[in-house]
Amino acid sequence: MYVKIDFNSDEAIYIQLRNQIIYGIATSQIQEGDNLPSVRELAEYIGINMHTVNKAYTILKQEGYVKLDRRKGAVIAIDIDKIQAIEDMKEELRVILAKAICKNISCQDVFEVVGEIFNEFERG
Amino acid sequence: MYVKIDFNSDEAIYIQLRNQIIYGIATSQIQEGDNLPSVRELAEYIGINMHTVNKAYTILKQEGYVKLDRRKGAVIAIDIDKIQAIEDMKEELRVILAKAICKNISCQDVFEVVGEIFNEFERG
DNA sequence: TATCTGTTATATATATTGTATAACAACCGA
DNA sequence: TCGGTTGTTATACAATATATATAACAGATA
Q1: Cβ of A4 under 8 Å from any chain B Cβ?
Q2: Is A56 found in the same domain as A104?
Q3: Length B70 CA → D2 C1' (Å)
Q4: In chain A, what residues touch B81 (CB-CB under 8 Å)?
Q5: Are residues A67 and A26 in the same domain?
Q6: Are both B87 and B72 inside the same structural domain?
Q7: What tens digit of pLDDT does each residue of A61-94 get?
Q8: For residue B4, is it within any domain?
Q9: Which nucleotides in chain C have some atom under 7 angstroms from a protein Cβ?
Q10: Rounded mean pLDDT of chain B?
Q11: D13 C1' – A45 CA distance, angstroms?
């Protein structure tokens, strides 16, 4: 899986890394049961500190994307609580859609964009 | 317009305030041409520092929601660059929808939630 | 035993966030 | 003109978040 970090971004490195891994899962580049590199290995590869990677992994664990094991390392293991996930998503969408309404973007416009992104991910 | 700040939130106060004002515009509680309270007045009302309010106003200006005037104060003035706004929205939606796909949420599920939120805002 | 995991603990440097005080220029009403 | 308002800017300070660096630990593995 390809990981790209923008060091000039205003977004924290561990957040970027978390997102990249989530992209990887969404596009099926990595899937249930797959191993992620060890924190030290990935840190070395990207050129960042071990703790930054560990922070990303710990968040991914809390959010239900991986399980951490001392022997195996980090393994993709999606905890699907769909009800909860939809609730979380709704909260995040509120701000985005409020902005959209201010900018004259219609519900149909949003549907189109959502559809496009789903297609992007499904193609990988 | 009602403004509610959660001081225990992990979200910065000036971000919360920005969002609340965007909600106010999206729900037509405040509209084009309306005046926002002065930075000092709103800071006093909420119980926060003047500069925190100023930061929220400055961001709202940069993002094209208000115009700031020395004499009139902050005035709602939406700069509608729909193409740009859709592009920005798409970028924000990518992470959210990647998470959704991981959690087995379908495109139809997202449409429903988006529809619900649009209804919420349209009712005010 | 040597080596690999995640985990935890310190320490340090920098950036962000929020507050505090102060002053400035432009405007407005009396 | 005077006093008060507006956003704006500057400086300083404390608290927190972010990222790095080094080190050590317990559990698993070969």
Answers
A1: no
A2: no
A3: 19
A4: 103
A5: yes
A6: no
A7: 999 999 998 778 899 999 999 999 999 999 999 9
A8: no
A9: 4-10, 16-22, 25-28
A10: 95
A11: 39
Shared domain check, B72 and B99: no
- Taking the Cβ of residue B121 and every Cβ of chain A, the question of whether any pair is shorter than 8 Å is answered with yes
In chain B, pLDDT over 70 holds for what percent of residues? Answer: 99
- Which residues is A68 bridged to in the sheet? A74
Question: Which residue of chain B comes nearest to A19, CA vs CA?
Answer: B95
Q: Which amino acid, residue B10?
A: D
Going by pLDDT thresholds of 50, 70 and 90, the confidence category of residue B73 is: confident
How many distinct structural domains can be found in chain B? Answer: 2
Between CA B107 and CA B99 the distance in angstroms is 12
Query: Taking phi first (over 0 means left), then psi (-120 to 50 degrees means alpha), and beta for anything else, what does residue A104 get?
Result: left
Both tokens assigned to A20: 């990249």
Mean pLDDT of A31-53: 95
What's the CATH number where B26 sits? 1.10.10.10
Which three-class secondary structure state does DSSP give residue B100? helix
Q: Which pLDDT value is given to residue B33? A: 93
| Residue range(s) defining the domain that contains residue B27 | 13-76
Assess whether pLDDT exceeds 70 at residue A124. no
Q: Which nucleotide is nearest to A57 (CA to C1')?
A: C6
Indicate the residue among B61, B76, B91 that finishes a domain.
B76
Question: For residue B14, which of B50, B40, B44, B41 has the smallest C-alpha distance?
Answer: B50
Question: What pLDDT does A73 receive?
Answer: 87
Assess whether A53 and A18 both reside in one domain: yes
Out of A26, A101, A116, closest to residue B26 by CB = A101
